[in-house]
């Protein structure tokens, strides 16, 4: 039976069954708008609506745009505050009737890119950054994820970096590609100064338009666009759910 990946994004909740060997969707994905407000029960309904489109699945992986520790959502920068300390994995599992793994959205996208996309076969320290509603980060050492990094919230020029440099800032402030790229460059220089990664993989919807802003960015670290685009979160969530099944976390009680 298949594993379903579901990606909770700023504007849509998207999901599909995933071939976790090939890193591909097995069926066309289904999308519903992200509820506003995005409180726990409304988002669970949206996730259940997406899951109901597919026939049989044995587990589900769900991405969440915040820190997730042991299935509990710990931050909620761009979603309703009812998610703070919500037992998300348990709530989804209860609703969907199958074991569910929940992980950070950028971590999920990074897992997929490192396994099947732009970060494949790369050693050393690799950083995936997603530019969307916020800035998500995922850090990998020799292919292994160091989960829940929150480098989108570094302070840059006295601001939370994502407020200035996420793609939402470009749209909301109607910035030219030049003006926005200047902010992204300052942000990336700051991150490379702190971490010296070997590679930045840039994801999020705007990565489809990398030709518009990559040439404007002058940094030391190689910069590549994500290759799985919109499906990275779905694929990474399913892969992580499968891994969780293979290596159950021992009970702490
Ligand atoms: C959140 C991150 C998330 C990113 C992208 C940030 O505001 O703090 O956890 O990965 O947005 O959604």
Strand content: 25-35%
CATH class of the largest domain: Alpha Beta
Which class do the helix and strand fractions yield? alpha/beta
Query: Which ligands accompany this protein?
Result: beta-D-glucopyranose
Helix content: 25-40%
Low-confidence stretches: none
Q: What is the name of the CATH architecture of the largest domain?
A: 2-Layer Sandwich
> For the report, how would you describe the main beta sheet?
6 strands, mixed
Within CATH, the superfamily of the largest domain carries the name ATPase, nucleotide binding domain
Q: What is the residue-mean pLDDT, rounded to a whole number?
A: 95
Domain count: the total is 2
* Radius of gyration based on Cα positions: 17 Å
DSSP strand count:
15
Explain this structure.
It is a single chain. With 253 residues, the protein is an alpha/beta fold. It folds into two domains: 3-107 and 231-246, ATPase, nucleotide binding domain (Nucleotidyltransferase, domain 5); 121-226, 2-Layer Sandwich (Nucleotidyltransferase, domain 5), CATH 3.30.420. It has eight helices and 15 strands. The protein starts with a strand and ends in a 7-residue tail after the last helix. Residues 65-67, 75, 77-78, 104-106, 130, 133-134, 136, 150, 152, 162 line the site of beta-D-glucopyranose.
